[in-house]
Predict the structure.
Amino acid sequence: MENIGLVVIGGGPAGLAAAIEAYKNGVRDILVLERERELGGILKQCIHNGFGLHIFGEELTGPEYAWRYIKQLKELGIVYKLNTTVLNISHDKIVTAVNSNDGLIRLRGKAVILAMGCRERTRGALNIPGTRPAGVYTAGTAQRFVNMEGYLPGKKAVILGSGDIGLIMARRMTLEGAKVKMVCELLPYSGGLTRNIVQCLHDFGIPLKLSHTVVAIDGRERLEGVTVCRVDENRRPIMETAEYVECDTLLLSVGLIPENELSEEAGIEIDPATSGPVVNESMETSVEGIFACGNVVHVHDLVDYVTQESKMAGRCAAEYVKGTGEIHEGKIYKTLAGNSVLYVVPQIIRKNFVKDEIKFFFRVKNIYKNINVVIKSGNSLLNTQKKLKVTPGEMESIRLSKKQMEFLNQKSDIYVELEEG
């Protein structure tokens, strides 16, 4: 058993930013565990630009964004282990991992930061009837094939789901010479950013079919085609609208799931709305000394927000390791999703731990126009922010200052909700 000040699980953008921030706040005994052969996480395969506008004030590709943090990590001399899979985290912060060089490793961390990211939903989660031919991939797998391995998954593609990875792959496949016949979306609105819909679909003349889904897969050895169908308001297929589309590739962009098997084994409380840990204003989970950040908490649409959140986790974990955090907690408030809001993060606020302000991230349930985002506590209106349009595909945020928190109702929780403008 080796004692470590801070163990960071995951070497993607969240883990890198958290480890660097903890080092800058005085913790030197840090170990980053990464299961892949390189640091950088998903950013390694995201060769398109659009990263870093909030953090660096310039447009970077995914590998460029990741390299800035990898370079910093190496310059600071922070220790990391690659090709290392974490098997278990106990309630008392004992991390069990394995790799080919060290064999089985057992580490007792004074603090642990969870930064495992998220994974894609696969065909098995969709229950699409039909055969099981080659040519059905998640959009992220196809992205890795094209951008890192140098393989084109197919020549004629249909994409199911309008998440950001699916939209980006529609453009990428087109640029590589494939014909993307359509993007189908089960919901009546897209799940991706507006800029991606414009840049990846409209600019290339790729049709987006809302309220449509794939109801059958056809092919023996290789995918030969799919049956696409309109759905009603209850998301049931209207079979009279069925259309057979000839294709050799089906890409699935049907949602991301935070990687939280390790979190559950450690006894961490999971929010059913986000599928990630319940965290407080310091990004600490329900288990003392275990922090979480990035897509393992909730799925972000911008890596810049992942970095900001991870810096908070790194800074607060450093305070915990050094024992310099607040001792008197004071009043604890729950943050709840109110009218038309799907979830809010962080879910718990310890008033005395908020230094200047707290930033709430949330997603809405539908498309709304000309509304006000409000923060309430009992009958007290703490903050309001006007929005011309909000959509489920774009994460929103609203701030609450320390001064505004003085008006918190002692007998009520905090609600973030929408009101008509």
In short: The chain has seven helices and 27 strands.
